[in-house]
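Query form — protein DUF4337 domain-containing protein

QUESTION: What is the three-dimensional structure of this chain?
INPUT:
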Amino acid sequence: MILIGLILLIIGLLVGIGLLTTIGGILIVVGAVLWILGATGRAVGGRKHYF
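ANSWER: The structure tokens for DUF4337 domain-containing protein are given below.
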């Protein structure tokens, strides 16, 4: 999720499409939060790891 967000963010910045930049930023933040919760051992959605 972080990788897809980063790709969309870069494409959005290069092409100048604000929607892609926004979606990319949101995906990066959500992916980072899920990664941190999974790394601390907290169950996310009933699973230890979200991937």
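ADDITIONAL NOTE: The chain has two helices and no strands.
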